[in-house]
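4.2 Preliminary Data

To establish feasibility before requesting continued support, the project team ran the inverse folding procedure on a target of 377 residues. The structure was first converted into the token representation described in Section 3, and no sequence information of any kind was made available to the design step. The complete token record follows.
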């Protein structure tokens, strides 16, 4: 819901009042996201010329040419769960793959209210002004469960959405974190093929989604607040260990000094933690997403990171291992789904679980029995 946010100080004065069309509407609910295609001919809705079925080549050429409408439709195809669409999406991706990888992938996390949306807008507008093409994606598994997203409605980024060089895509609803991740990763590749050279991936500071986003980005940024203990902020030490930089937001007004004190404090603590990236020292910085102060500094830190880690070979090595990890995480997801959906496994589980909790069957034997039942199909 658009809030009563005041116009931030970094907003260019010439900004008009209309919303641009670069905020995409996410696929909602459990349908396959391709209803318009799939139901053609069965609804009374007249398919306009733009809604004709696109071929693999139409998708590929459209994305490579930077056609926004086709980019949006390709992402919708990638997000679809329908088998036919998954196959077509994979064919499209295969052709796009040689054109991917030429971007800086930045993950951004922090608890709700820390200022992620405001920060991403400020950074996004700043980067567009510098001549970058910026895609903003979100990974928010909560939206699948609650239908209400913790990350909220990205149409809030009204200033960034007016930038012709920005593209904002809300979190897909995938049912599972694995589903959401597959879609977000593939969307990231599609955006890269379409010429976006900065990908900002937002996630929320709760649960497993941070580990997942860490595994798909080059640089991981943790937004924090001063004046609240880590516990209050819901930030676990594990999350700090994933970060390539801590950024204390809202360093403005009365809060500025406190933010600077927090920065010193965190820098001291960071000395004792292993860095998230080999050859890089994680440090704390301050910024104000509201005034824009510190936005240029954090971007120069990210650029420095890319240069340092590229020269050391760490950047490319991480990308390679991320791709392989992704392959195996999909294999694991698939195996898990098949195991739990197996009819015989489902039949026997209640009995085995009962025996385990009542102490008649050791856990190891129970696991062996279940796997044997699955493998003997
Ligand atoms: P998110 O939930 O992490 O996406 O946080 P939002 O971007 O929605 O920001 C939460 C609230 O904090 C909003 O009312 C923002 O206007 C405010 N806010 C965000 N950044 C700053 C900042 O740098 N300074 C101040 N004073 N307020 C901020």
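Position-by-position output of the design step:
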């Amino acid at each position: 819901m658009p809030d009563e946010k005041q116009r931030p100080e970094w907003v260019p004065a010439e900004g008009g009042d209309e919303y641009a069309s670069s905020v995409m509407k996410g696929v909602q609910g459990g349908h396959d996201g391709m209803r318009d295609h799939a139901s053609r001919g069965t609804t009374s809705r007249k398919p306009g010329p733009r809604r004709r079925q696109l071929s693999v080549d139409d998708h590929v050429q459209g994305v490579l040419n930077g056609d926004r409408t086709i980019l949006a439709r390709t992402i919708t195809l990638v997000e679809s769960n329908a088998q036919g669409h998954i196959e077509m999406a994979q064919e499209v991706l295969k052709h796009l793959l040689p054109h991917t990888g030429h971007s800086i992938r930045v993950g951004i996390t922090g608890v709700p209210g820390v200022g992620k949306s405001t920060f991403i807008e400020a950074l996004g507008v700043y980067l567009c002004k510098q001549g970058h093409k910026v895609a903003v994606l979100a990974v928010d598994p909560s939206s699948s469960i609650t239908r209400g997203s913790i990350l909220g409605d990205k149409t809030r980024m009204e200033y960034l959405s007016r930038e012709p060089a920005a593209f904002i895509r809300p979190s897909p609803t995938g049912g599972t974190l694995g589903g959401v991740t597959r879609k977000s990763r593939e969307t990231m590749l599609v955006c890269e093929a379409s010429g976006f050279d900065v990908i900002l991936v937002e996630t929320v500071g709760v649960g497993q989604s941070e580990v997942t986003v860490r595994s798909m980005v080059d640089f991981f940024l943790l937004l924090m607040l001063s004046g609240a203990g880590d516990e209050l902020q819901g930030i676990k030490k594990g999350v700090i260990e994933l970060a390539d930089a801590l950024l204390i937001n809202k360093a403005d007004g009365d809060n500025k000094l406190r933010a600077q004190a927090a920065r010193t404090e965190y820098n001291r603590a960071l000395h004792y933690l292993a860095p998230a990236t080999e050859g890089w020292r994680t440090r704390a910085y301050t910024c104000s997403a509201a005034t824009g102060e510190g936005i240029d500094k954090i971007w120069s830190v990210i650029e420095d990171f890319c240069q340092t880690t590229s020269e050391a070979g760490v950047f490319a090595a991480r990308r390679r291992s991320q791709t392989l990890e992704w392959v195996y995480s999909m294999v694991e997801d698939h195996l898990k789904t098949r195991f739990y959906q197996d009819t015989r496994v489902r039949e026997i589980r209640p009995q085995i679980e009962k025996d385990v909790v009542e102490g008649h069957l050791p856990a190891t034997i129970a696991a062996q029995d279940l796997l044997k039942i699955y493998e003997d199909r």
